[in-house]
Design a protein that fits this description.
By secondary structure, the protein is α/β, with parallel strands linked by helices. The protein has a domain of 309 residues: Amidase signature (AS) domain (Amidase signature (AS) enzymes). Helix 10 packs across helix 13. The protein is globular. 52% of the residues are buried. Bound molecules: glutamine. The site of glutamine has 14 residues, from strand 6. Glutamine (GLN) binds next to strand 6. This is Glutamyl-tRNA(Gln) amidotransferase subunit A, mitochondrial.
Length: 504
């Protein structure tokens, strides 16, 4: 049996044996189609002309990304009977590269959540358990994709990261999660949560598999108006890849920034240890460490939870049971009372967290509140971007260099750095019983708090990765986050490679 076929059979066996983790909503393996595709890939490999390094490998797609062969539910009752007539661009790109989409992953409904518990299909369980055998959160909202990768139900998986939904589950499940710069990967066919923040992210057990996928997806797509044009891409390429990264790093050791605002008192000791050991490791490799300040970080979380729900409330308005989504109007439908249909469809179709976001968003966009909430949050977003620009050595390639005839200087007087290293999440995964069910004692606000370290990079559109680092002395695992300047995705992945899966 070929190694590809063996790998695929192992993945399918794992999909069958890990069903209790609830990582996948639907799978292709029951149809047996995957087998033919892998045999074709095998033939291509034998002839020395594989489509790519993903040719013949099983991938899993978060269930808010459209696939033609499997339903796309967004883990919502409003959509649970829906199959897209087309593939999202990212899915098509993977299939063109020979990858076989073998399942759709469970998530927080429409991507809203931090623990993958807000799902119409029930919560995702982490494969790790606590010392007293309690089930743990897999992180969210792409928890199903993360667990599928961590338990080898697939080679790699796609998630979406609006405010941390790829990085947080990666940290909780001990794998690599990468959110590229905003606008590099197509969002066409990705169900929108908050357009100005949404990115497609990639999970892998190794950085190399994440890079394989990124190389395939990092292309212009004219169907996504926020996707960077070929011109802009080559400008960014000129800035960051000449001279090539490897020579840049051998002649110039990296300057690594340690954002002081991330050193909060609530940081779990295991996370703090993983962070400081990672920094030590980089120091031993000859790189230098510099404290930096990102003062607006403290406001970023509040700004995010105004902006993301505002965009969500407008995006989700279309699920009215007429043009989009399931209708729960049933026999009660009365054309004279169209609003009744609307209220009932949304009341029954959408889960409580989604409704909370819609209410929050509609409020912050309302005439009386927009100045104090939405507009203020946009201002904070600009300040967060400014903080990062003041701190990175490289200029933001999309920011104007000259304004009204004058040069613009974004730099501050503090040390400037190539890259930043900080924690992904403040703590290790909480027990599921504290999040759902009768014993649940955590408020929605507690879940929002988990995103405190991931949302700043999202607001600024920056590339960021979470990698698993094990503290050798206690054997505890934590996610360490690497954040780079806009467009410097290759450097983020390079540093991720230097730290990922290390025992330090
Ligand atoms: N937890 C964040 C939220 O609920 C992030 C979600 C995401 O990145 N999709 O909005």
């Amino acid at each position: 049996m070929s190694s590809l076929l063996r790998e695929a059979e192992r993945c399918i066996a794992n999909q069958n044996s890990y069903t209790a983790l609830n990582a996948l909503i639907s799978t292709l393996h029951s149809s047996g189609q995957w087998l033919d595709r892998i045999k074709e890939a095998d033939t291509r490999r034998a002839q020395g002309r594989p489509e790519s390094r993903l040719d013949g490998r099983l991938v899993v797609i978060k269930d808010n990304i459209c696939t033609r062969e499997l339903p796309t539910t967004c883990a919502s009752r409003a959509l649970d009977k829906f199959t897209s007539p087309f593939n999202a661009t990212v899915v098509q790109q993977l299939e063109d590269a020979g990858a076989v989409v073998s399942g759709k992953a469970n998530l927080d409904e429409f991507g809203m959540g931090s623990h993958s518990v807000n799902s119409h299909f029930g919560p995702v369980k982490n494969m790790y358990r606590s010392r007293n055998a309690e089930d743990l959160s897999a992180g969210g909202s792409s928890g199903g994709s993360a667990v599928a990768v961590a338990t080898e139900q697939c080679y790699t998986a796609l998630g979406t990261d609006t405010g941390g939904s790829v990085r947080l589950p990666a940290a909780y499940t001990g794998i690599v999660g990468f959110k590229p710069s905003y606008g590099l990967i197509s969002r066409w066919g990705v169900v929108a949560y908050a357009n100005s923040l949404d990115t497609v992210g990639i999970f892998g057990r190794e950085v190399s598999s994440v890079r394989d996928v990124f190389d395939i997806l990092n292309q212009h797509d004219p169907r996504d108006p926020t996707n960077l044009s070929p011109d802009t891409r080559s400008r960014i390429g000129d800035q960051f890849t000449s001279p090539p990264l490897a020579s840049r790093m051998t002649t110039n050791p990296l300057k690594i920034g340690v954002p002081l605002e991330y050193n909060i008192s609530e940081l779990a000791p295991s996370v703090r240890r993983a962070w400081s050991r990672s920094l030590n490791h980089m120091l031993q490799q000859g790189h230098s460490i510099h404290p930096v300040s990102l003062p607006t970080t403290q406001l970023a979380l509040s700004a995010y939870y105004v902006l993301a729900p505002a965009e969500a409330s407008s995006n989700l308005a279309k699920y009215d049971g007429v043009r989009y989504g399931n209708s729960f109007g049933g026999d009660h439908y009365d054309p004279q009372m169209n609003s009744y249909l609307y209220a009932r469809t949304r009341g029954e179709g959408l889960g409580s967290e989604v409704k909370r976001r819609i209410l929050l968003g509609a409020f912050s966009l309302s005439a009386g509140a927009i100045d104090n909430y939405f507009i203020q949050a946009q201002r904070i977003r600009r300040l967060v971007q400014r903080d990062f620009n003041a701190t990175f050595l490289a200029n933001h390639p999309l920011m104007p260099r000259r304004l009204n005839g004058d040069d613009v200087n974004y730099k501050s007087s503090q040390a400037q750095v190539d890259i930043m290293i900080c924690p992904t999440a403040p703590s290790s995964p909480p027990a599921l019983s504290s999040l759902v069910g009768e014993g649940a004692n955590r408020s929605p606000l507690d879940a929002y708090m988990n995103d405190v370290f991931t949302v700043p990079a999202s607001l600024a559109g920056l590339p960021a990765a979470s990698v698993p680092v094990t503290d050798e002395s206690t054997d505890s695992l934590a996610g360490v986050q690497i954040i780079g300047q806009y467009g410097d995705d290759a450097l983020v992945l390079k540093v991720a490679e230097m730290l990922s899966n290390k025992r330090l």
